[in-house]
Amino acid sequence: MVRILTREEVKKHKGATWVIIHNSVYDVSEFINEHPGGEEVLLERAGGEASEGFEDAGHTPDARSRLQKLKVGEISTTEHKDLEQKTEDWLAVTKDPNELDTEPENSYAVPIVIVVVALLACFYYYYF
Ligand code: HEM
Fold it and tell me: Name one GO molecular function term (predicted).
């Protein structure tokens, strides 16, 4: 079950370093030392918002999937903040894997092509 937290709880949390990225809470205590971008950027944001910094650094899909393993909870929906633009990478990794590819992108293309071909056939039959 997902642990729901308020921003105040994240801020006051003792014993572990938590950061908030896209309304989810991550425990970066163990990861701080190995962060390729350095400890400082994480410590500066400890207990608070790190979404913008995270996106600005242009993290790879690998970094994004690491993130998922550090998740400890989610911010209560009443306190959600959304960045104006989330990257497509982000949306891809945060989507429920079961939802992925259930609806192929070209699901409308096939019927449209059939209708167009049928119309062309009628047109051809009528005029020639
Ligand atoms: C828990 C959250 C984070 C994780 C799991 C993470 C992970 C990583 C990883 C794996 C890299 C190596 C390059 C890549 O694969 O993209 C990286 C690089 C970097 N990260 Fe993070 N990061 C986190 C948070 C942040 C935040 C909040 C900032 C800034 C505010 C930041 C700034 C950077 C920078 C500047 C680099 C580039 C380092 C370089 O190439 O010299 N990261 N991070």
Answer: heme binding
